[in-house]
């Protein structure tokens, strides 16, 4: 009997798929379309490890399943090829970032080929090539025309190691998400996308994303962070200015006993200029900027502040209250100024205690004497006290009444604020899409005309050991002429955040070779939104939120007719090894090339899909891979053995006789149903594979029965091969071919189950006597209680155990259970 030779079989089918262009999608036939997409990889490293593989193997199984169902499936692939890590690695290795990136892309494409990935490479996009980033720049210009791209001086996150600014989303616990360096604060002129203009739509439309994981939707809602409250103006004594605060608790205004400004607040300089506090406060501000946001905002961190010497007037009672600056207030929420109500806020309470600031209760604690000194902040609900016209009201009613009062007095109004901040896209590095703007002393900032796109990155640059962008030193790039007046001008040397590249790439796949437009709107409107998107949950806030934003903008500009990019989203769990996320930097990555050389690609694929429910994290076990290899060999052996039977290729009608015949047919159709349901109901690959393993075990037992019927074995094996297709395509194609079929398995459809075979024609009823199971009786399926009882009473085993005269009662219990109650 021929052994399973994956080293011979798998290359043959990879070549077949390539030679026959098996994965090509004809975009002119959208009637039965299905667009499945895996988040494209970032080629900063030189290979994909087994942890990366989970994402792509899941995507390929989904692709092959929907193709087998008969859909015209678009399954493209490309590369998110710009970015800081690639640049840093290239500098370290002494190679140009473009060369490093493109050679990594070729290496990864080779890995995808080895894994048997079914990508339509005719649609490939590479974000670092001019034919792609030309259109990234075009999108920037469209946002600029719409007033959604702008430049301003702002306090930004600066990574001293990467030498570039970071968006808020790229700072994790005060550290750079890429290099883990402590992030600093700097005031710099930067380019932003006005994503806040879409905050409400981005938030409200989350409710339309019915086929997205709840976890992702919650993360996006929290990041947008919509808060309703009031904006209130506090006049500053001695100055013709006011400090505006946003508060979600206008009901507590009578309890505000001091104000706090963030160290970055723009009014600080004018408040302390020329005062005795000026130098001290400047030093405090600089020290606060060096703290992480976690240190500043954490409950356990020390609350430090300085009294500016200024007083603001509480507008509800006319009382002057001190104005502090403190490290626990940030500029990235509200107005960067708060009214502090220490009696009802934990951080305010700690600060007030430290600096001996008075506290006034305004919410009644029903369990305490509200006239006694406070020992802690009371943060629960209650009735208003010490609040004049609000006394006796519940909190929500008091909020509404106070907002109305502020509005009538002209000192405040109902207001909404967001945690979300505008998207900072400027990066002070080389390896990114140049921002298509020109600065002219006469005309100011002027957009590059569309006809002059792309603004190409110069290749001949000198990289500095510090990592500083070399673009400023390339005079041929920097020096240009103003498109408006023709005078000498300078190009912007900042490049765009790589998340701009990935915020629209899913549109480009349907027009990847179009040199007249970013995409063909008619094709995009036919093929999108993406039917099934697959990728890591770590992209829930950055990539997924930005993609939704850009899609909505393009819809508003009339380029597309939909405003959500992904109809369904699946987020896979991480692969860990030794309890830690698999990564090259941690030294725990598994090299797929070695696995494939030892076991073959199908084993690698099968184990990856079987390891755990795909939405959960999974621990990689090198020893367990062998179990998947043994299963494929079992399938191959039974296929070879049955293929050698002289009557196996004869397509006879199926006749069942013995109970084992029926059992195998039932198992076959149950397995088809199970795998189909698992593939369409949440991608439960592990349970689908488990069902196929059970089916193989039964086939091994059945084939040894002398009365086993070859047509039944043939039916079951054909179904098994077709079910295995999305999971282990190489061995499945080989077995399918050896059946003598003309078409590739990809074109041969998905097996259908017969509902008549999903349940047994008889079921076993457990018979209890006074609550203890004594025997089992087979009865026909579908009988009700009145029909079942006589059959049980007449059964010979039951008669021996329970003489009719001793039966007091027979209770029929659902789930195949009967209980006889015996007299006496």
Characterize the main sheet. 4 strands, parallel
Tell me the overall shape: globular
Number of distinct beta strands: 30
Q: Average pLDDT value?
A: 91
Which consecutive residue ranges, at least 5 long each, have pLDDT under 50?
none
Count of helical stretches? 26
* Class inferred from helices and paired strands: alpha+beta
Helix content: 25-40%
What does this structure look like?
- With 824 residues, the chain is an alpha+beta fold.
- The protein contains 26 helices and 30 strands.
- It has a four-stranded parallel sheet, covered by helices on one side. The protein has a four-stranded antiparallel sheet with strand order 4-3-7-15.
- The mean pLDDT is 91.
Give the secondary structure arrangement, pairings included.
Layout: H1 6-19, E1 33-38, H2 50-68, E2 72-74, H3 84-93, H4 97-115, H5 130-145, E3 149-159, E4 164-166, E5 171-172, E6 175-176, E7 184-193, H6 199-204, H7 214-224, E8 227-235, E9 242-247, E10 258-261, H8 268-272, H9 278-289, H10 293-297, E11 305-313, E12 320-326, E13 337-340, H11 346-354, H12 395-409, E14 412-417, E15 423-424, E16 426-427, E17 437-440, E18 444-447, H13 475-478, E19 479-481, E20 488-491, E21 495-496, H14 498-501, H15 505-508, H16 521-527, E22 532-536, H17 542-556, E23 569-572, E24 575-577, E25 580-581, H18 592-599, H19 601-610, E26 618-619, H20 625-643, H21 659-680, H22 685-703, H23 710-724, H24 729-738, E27 762-769, E28 772-780, H25 785-794, H26 796-801, E29 807-813, E30 817-822
Parallel strand pairs: 1-2, 1-22, 10-12, 22-23, 24-26, 27-30
Antiparallel strand pairs: 3-4, 3-7, 5-6, 7-15, 8-9, 8-14, 10-13, 11-12, 16-21, 17-18, 17-20, 19-20, 24-25, 27-28, 29-30
